[in-house]
Specification:
Elements: E1 9-15, H1 17-21, H2 25-35, E2 38-45, H3 49-55, H4 65-72, E3 77-84, H5 87-95, H6 108-112, E4 121-123, H7 127-137, H8 151-154
Antiparallel strand pairs: 1-3, 1-4, 2-3
Bound molecules: guanosine-5'-diphosphate and magnesium ion.
Active site: 122
Protein name: Nucleoside diphosphate kinase B
InterPro entries: NDK-like_dom (IPR034907), NDK-like_dom_sf (IPR036850), Nucleoside_diP_kinase (IPR001564)
């Protein structure tokens, strides 16, 4: 997909099935909203095994992948595209390390999880990875280009 805004960065954030089951969707969205990032796409989906193996192509051969597949297809996920300056790296910091047991309090995983196999949320790990993942989960017409009214109050014009 070609993303609506050229100059800024995008990332794919997903609330995993445990986050949906545990009613954490609102709190997770809230963290990205309050940071000032802009939501440009959002939907609820049941991930197929094929989509998931593409999404996780870097870990698909790992011995624990069957656990990941079972986890991630066990229920619906919420997938989102967030936009903003440095949003990929900032989101990874907000999400915290893969294993919630090692995550700092204040991160999403540090506040809501303590097991690597139930870590509540996904965040792309690079701008290239984000582009690839957004293309897997979203159609072009599902991403909206809109002007947020607080733009001048979250980004200094230069
Ligand atoms: P992330 O980028 O922090 O999400 O971590 P990775 O890209 O390394 O792994 C992708 C996802 O696979 C993680 O978020 C976990 O849900 C899962 N995962 C990674 N390592 C393990 C593991 O050792 N055991 C299990 N059960 N799941 C794992
Ligand atoms: Mg990863």
């Amino acid at each position: 997909v070609t993303l609506p805004v050229r100059a800024t960065e995008h990332t794919l954030i997903a609330v995993k099935p445990d986050g949906v089951q545990r009613r954490l969707v609102g709190q997770i969205i809230h963290r990205f909203e309050q940071r000032g990032f802009k939501l440009v796409g959002l939907k609820m989906m049941q991930a197929s095994e094929d989509l998931l193996s593409e999404h996780y192509r870097e870990i698909v051969k790992k011995p624990f992948y069957p656990l990941v597949r079972a986890y991630m297809t066990a229920g619906p996920v919420i997938v989102m595209v967030w936009e903003g300056s440095n949003v990929v790296q900032s989101s990874r910091k907000m999400v915290g390390p893969t294993n919630g047991a090692e995550a700092q309090a204040g991160t999403i995983r540090g506040d809501f999880s303590f097991h690597v196999g139930r870590n509540v949320v996904h965040a792309s790990d690079s701008t290239e990875g984000a582009q690839r993942e957004i293309g897997l989960w979203f159609q072009e017409n599902e991403l909206l280009n809109w002007e947020s009214c607080d733009q001048d109050w979250t980004i200094e014009a230069n």
